[in-house]
Amino acid sequence: MSDKSISTHDAMSQASGSRYFVLEHHPENGTLLGFWLYLMSDCLIFACLFAAYAVLGRNYAGGPTGAELFDLPLVAINTSLLLLSSITYGFAMLEAQKKRLNNTLIWLVVTGLLGACFIGLELYEFIHLIHEGAGPQRSGFLTSFFALVATHGLHVTFGIVWLITLLFQLKRHGLTTENNRRLMCLSMFWHFLDVIWIGVFTFVYLMGVLP
């Protein structure tokens, strides 16, 4: 084989290799599928925490009960804030579909503020309980209560950090395909936290005030 033929063969091999890498792309809906798997694993974590509360929820060890500690009006306000934030995030998604960047940013900011208010009231509740001597070390009931509610609160805090990061990405790059995918993932995460909180509100707070 001549040198010219070898050179031609090498060039074709390189071109073929280049085409291989060019054609390689991000699998369609791969990110959403992976994120669904993550949410399922998160469901298992919360399922364990709910199970622990179901076992320890009546173990007061001579300490205060849920009926004595829980401030239902405050918790109802907090619940309303989180559910309202889910609605405002839905508005942001609608504006994103219409390619209205500024309106999308505004609704995301409103969502973040509502989430921050939720965390603020939850911290106020925790501080008040600890000040009353009802910290997580007081009884099995309070240990499981703080573990479940605080884990949810940490998730909301992470969601707010994620939302702030996404705001900067949207401001810099606009409603690109990648940012729309990130918006969708955060939407799934945020609505997931709403569903978990409805379970917490019903199973922990409403049932906790029953005799």
Summarize the model shown.
It is built from 7 helices and no strands. It has helices at 3-23, 30-56, 66-69, 72-97, 101-131, 140-173, 177-208.
What can you see in these coordinates?
The chain is mostly helical. Helices cover 83% and strands 0% of the residues. Helix 2 (30-56) runs parallel beside helix 7 and helix 6 (140-173) packs antiparallel against helix 7. The longest helix has 34 residues, at 140-173. It is elongated. The N and C termini lie far apart (92 Å). The relative contact order is 0.14. Mean pLDDT is 89; it is low at 1-9 and 11-24.
Please describe the structure with a list of short key phrases separated by commas or semicolons:
211 residues, mainly alpha, 0% strand, disordered N terminus, Cytochrome bo(3) ubiquinol oxidase subunit 3, electron transport, transport
Head-to-tail CA distance between termini: 92 Å
Distinct helical segment count: 7
What would you call the structural class? Answer: mainly alpha
Number of strand elements: 0
Please give the largest β-sheet: none
Average pLDDT level: 89
Helical residue percent band: over 70%
Radius of gyration in whole Å, from Cα? 25 Å
The secondary-structure element order is HHHHHHH
Tell me, what's the shape? elongated
Amount of beta strand: under 5%
The residue ranges in which pLDDT falls below 50 over 5 or more consecutive positions are 1-9, 11-24
Topology:
Elements lengths: L2 H21 L6 H27 L9 H4 L2 H26 L3 H31 L8 H34 L3 H32 L3
